[in-house]
Amino acid sequence: LSGCPRATFAGKKGKLSGDEILNTKFKTSDVLENDEEIKQLNKEISELNESNSEMEAAMVKLQSQISSMEKNLKNIEEENKIIEEQNEALFLELSGLSQALIQSLANIRLPHMNFDAYVNTLTDMYTNQECYQNPENKDLLESIKQAVKGIQV
């Protein structure tokens, strides 16, 4: 108790005797119990600091993963935009070719069917060589070949 400011101050004034000093609330056993509590609290603080460090490291890792994913998403969006522009250009080109084909075939007597069915029929006729054996189909195919000869693809 020689280091305790209250004990020293009271002892100097002569208010407390040695027995009274021991009976104060600052007994040695209390100080030892407080010391154990302080050690336990320091241990808990160390564990919390370690846990916080681990959590901060995990957060940094997650943030870097999120940044990487955002960058990949941005690249994919840019690639998709380019693909959409290319698709639009191809669609316009296909539309132009369709119109050119329709104009080229304007003077040819076509069977009564919609345009898609007609294109499918023509495709089948070109791929199936047996269609050339039929004179009617042969004349139609030759007329179509001449009509579409000038279309640039």
Automatic annotation (TrEMBL):
Top-level taxon in the UniProt lineage: Eukaryota
Subcellular location(s) per record: Nucleus
Record-level GO cellular component terms: nucleus
A molecular function (GO) term: DNA-binding transcription factor activity, RNA polymerase II-specific
Ranges in a coiled coil: 31-93
Keyword field: Coiled coil, Nucleus
tRNA-binding found in the keyword field: no
Protein name: Myelin transcription factor 1 domain-containing protein
Organism for this UniProt entry: Bambusicola thoracicus
